[in-house]
Amino acid sequence: MNLPQNKNQIQYVLAGSVPASNLKFLLHRLRGLCEQAAVSDNCFEDHEAVYTIKSSTTSSSSVSFRVRRSLAHTDAPHQVRYLGAVEGNDKNRAATMRNCIEVDTNDSITSFLEQIGFQFDHETILRGFLFRKGAMRITVSRLHKIPEKGVFSNMLPMTDSYLVELTLNTLVQQDSLCLEMRAFAEHLKPIVLLEKIEPKR
Length: 201
What we know:
There is one protein chain. The chain is α+β, with helices and mostly antiparallel strands. About 15% of the residues lie in helices and about 45% in strands. An eight-stranded antiparallel barrel has the order 1-5-4-3-2-6-7-9. Strand 6 and strand 7 form a beta hairpin. It is globular, with a radius of gyration of 17 Å. The relative contact order is 0.27.
């Protein structure tokens, strides 16, 4: 399988949640703030499967790859993504920082991962809305769990709330960009409060 050159990036993140009852107010605010305003153009429905493999360094840790594909645009490429651990050593940074590697690929990626030792862990479907403001990407999505692998008709919403993620990817570390993200997040208050992701202990 030929894979294109990967995109090894630094990703800054702010995240929060909004109840379904306040969704329309958040979308109205985002349409006013962002470049992408047409509702029909910014809806998405993605399937994401997570594959893990035990780390060779410690028996208690593992490495996860996320394989995502669009259910709304079936001709779009699959994407395999690795999200590094959250960097929790800089409390003065205005947003969470982590490594992010993204590669466009095709539907054979899942069998390829299994052949090299990865195991299927779980899968979800994300339905929501995508907005862009400059280099920032804002997603508002509702997560659905799939109790039986591959049977989408049985999917169930995981919560009544919507996950809101504000991300910004850059090739090199630029902590000053976090200030732009924080300024944008201020415009979404009090509808949603976007905060740094706490590192796992």
